[in-house]
Design a protein that fits this description.
mainly alpha
């Protein structure tokens, strides 16, 4: 069944791509052929390993399908250019496609080697500390509600006690609501509130959701607090994915069946992400149009491929400086004025883009740090980490009930997609903020449970 499914979707995707570009004067046989290879490799791996309905490996190939397979080909047909820079040339598309095919094949080989050779038993003992086996009593329920309420209040206060910015991400209506309010634009405060404090609310809900015995009232209160604090239309789309993929996997058993998660994710990227984009400029009639067509792949949301190609064409290498900024992301710029900017902004500066908030994908990060050797090193690191975490999760028969590691794993699915799209500096900072929030909630609640049991 899986084989028939991936063949059907491959044929459907390739046929759609052909008709989308057959009338284009920019149609290129060699770019079309290599893009189809990328799509086929991606689709095959998305629907392989039917005993693992979702995994970091599948997220890697879901990313490559859309950002390396579909979007670049449509951008070629449309002769798309971003940030007032020139469109890519046919040779640049073809060269990068060949490079990406090599990346996909090498990743599969290295990932497979690590999946077979990594030993899990030693790690499994450490993971037992992430079990939520005890019944959550009334006092611990109050702790969860208190943490979630505090998260809501702090986010509410950071928006100057205005509920509207907590429900809509931006646009004219938010600007009107906040026009007479002085906003603290401290980047440190913004990072702490959005990357650590805000996720606490949804982590409290997830902690309670995986417990074995639940009170419906507490479950509802925590759910409402999490929804208001982390409303999908008010947070960046990657953050919405990182928050609500775990919710979906924990609460809906049907999603955990074979192929369902991949199909839902594909549908979400095609339908939900364009819809959420409306709320970036809510209140602007020109932006409040939900469009579902191939045109969205030719817009700047999918600029990461072209930015990668431009870094290659201009041979821009920093010899590890960008990576140093990633390792020391937690150091404020007030302390380190020369701290490297994110690779997206760095690319924009080098290319003289008029806009700096652009994407630089994971392999572009490898190249800009150490050239082609960097791409290989980054690929090996990615293959090892994804194989390790996938084997820990699937090799030790994890469950979504009573196992907080399953929440951390589900969080990593959404963040891997964000890390692959780039840039690495911002994605790593966000990921650690979310993981710290999850572990913070777990440690406080678990400590209280153990303390009460010891008292008895």
């Amino acid at each position: 069944m899986n084989r028939l499914l991936w063949i059907f979707i491959s044929v459907l995707c390739i046929t759609a791509m052909f008709f989308a570009g057959s009338d284009s004067v920019y149609f290129s046989n060699k770019v079309f052929f290599t893009s189809c290879i990328i799509q086929i490799i991606s689709i095959y791996n998305i629907f392989s390993r039917e005993n693992e309905p979702y995994s970091l490996e599948k997220m890697f190939y879901l990313f490559s399908l859309f950002f390396f397979g579909v979007a670049p080909l449509l951008q070629l047909f449309d002769n798309s250019k971003f940030w007032y820079y020139r469109p890519l040339r046919e040779e640049e598309f073809f060269f990068l496609n060949i490079l990406i095919i090599c990346i996909l094949i090498l990743y599969k080989i290295v990932y497979g080697i690590f999946r077979k050779t990594i030993k899990v038993p030693r790690i499994e003992k450490k993971l037992n500390s992430f079990k939520v086996t005890d019944k959550i009593n009334f006092l611990n329920s109050l702790i969860l509600i208190g943490l979630s309420s505090l998260s809501f209040l702090l986010v509410f206060a950071s928006n100057n006690f205005n509920i509207f910015p907590m429900l809509v991400r931006g646009g004219e209506l938010v600007a009107d609501a906040m026009k007479n309010v002085e906003i603290d634009e401290s980047p440190t405060k913004w990072l702490i509130v959005n990357n650590f404090i805000r996720p606490i609310s949804i982590m409290c809900f997830l902690y309670y959701a995986i417990s074995k015995e639940k009170n419906k009232f507490v479950f509802t209160v925590l759910g409402l607090l999490a929804l208001i604090t982390c409303f999908p239309a008010a947070v960046p789309r990657f953050a919405a994915a990182a928050m609500y993929i775990p919710v979906m996997l924990v609460l809906i058993s049907f999603v955990r069946k074979k192929n369902v998660f991949s199909l839902i994710f594909i549908g979400g990227l095609l339908f939900l992400f364009p819809f959420l984009n409306i709320f970036r400029n809510f209140g602007n009639p020109d932006e409040e149009k939900f469009k579902l067509d191939f045109k969205m792949f030719t817009e700047p949301h999918f600029d990461t491929y072209q930015n990668f190609a431009l870094l290659l064409s201009n041979d821009i290498i920093t010899y590890g400086r960008q990576l140093l900024g990633v390792f020391l992301f937690w150091v404020p710029r007030s302390v380190w004025p020369d701290k490297p900017m994110g690779t997206g902004a760095f690319t924009a500066e080098k290319m003289n883009f008029f806009f700096s908030n652009v994407a630089a994908n994971y392999f572009a990060e490898g190249y800009v740090n150490f050239g082609y050797l960097g791409i290989i090193l980054f690929l090996i690191f990615l293959a090892y980490q994804t194989a390790l975490v996938d084997k820990i999760y699937w090799g030790t028969k994890r469950t979504t009930t009573g196992d907080f590691f399953s929440v951390l794993y589900a969080i990593s699915l959404g963040f891997l997609f964000f890390i692959l799209r780039g840039d690495l500096l911002s994605s790593v900072a966000y990921m650690f903020g979310f993981l710290f929030a999850a572990i913070f909630v777990y440690r406080i609640t678990t400590f209280r449970i153990k303390f009460i049991n010891n008292e008895k």
